[in-house]
Amino acid sequence: MTTPFLHHALTASAAAAGSAVLLLAAAGGASAHVGVTPDKTDAGSYALLTFGIPHGCDTSPTTKVAITLPQELNDAQPTVNPNWTAEKVTEQFAEPRKLPDGSSITKRTSQIVYTAKTPLSPELRDALVLSVHLPETAGTTLHFPTLQTCESGQTDWSQIAADGQDPHDLKTPAPSITITGAAGGDGHGASAHGTEQAAAVTDSGADVRSWTGLAAGMGGLVLGGAALFRSRGGRRAPVQDTAGKGPAVNQ
Prior knowledge:
This protein is of the alpha+beta class. The chain is 25% helix and 30% strand. It folds into 2 domains: 1-30 and 205-232; 34-192, Uncharacterised protein YcnI-like PF07987, DUF1775 (Immunoglobulin-like, Sandwich). The protein is globular, with a radius of gyration of 27 Å. Residues 33-179 form the YncI copper-binding domain. This is YncI copper-binding domain-containing protein.
């Protein structure tokens, strides 16, 4: 026979476990593609762009990741990642390009190529961080076509949604960000400093660890509910001393 307390404990534990499963499933779906997460999107600011590499080409380990910079960017500074080597690929202009400050450049960084020192297992993920100076025009969407090369095969994350098309319908969408209105200050912010870049690399797996911690916490809730039920169920009601000479005694 199920007591009211047991029914409540089992219901709460089942609900918690179900929520954990749904959240973990959502996390897995969100990390299925190579994507980019900016620490800021303010027009004219210096931002850290974190590219998540969640899996290989099907079941093949990743050996190289080539990130193409949009035409709106002239350079990007790779943050050191001990698992990869980074190389800048330059593009020479047919004619000098004039910058907003009046100066001109004859070439730009068109691509950042990361090569894995040890192939990245498809069961693991890593994060590659670039420091960039964002354009001044709010509303601009920047796309970063990314070619993921594996020991067997490649995945070209370069699809861009057409006008009116839902980006979620794309099979291999290019990572992208949209520039927002400029914030106060000089736009440089703390992102230009190496200490924050190092922090971004250190915390690159924080999302995975947070979901793992959530699952562990939900599991603890289930076990805690069961333990509480056992402690309640093992305690018997007090028995009054029939002689009336002493207090009630627990058996």
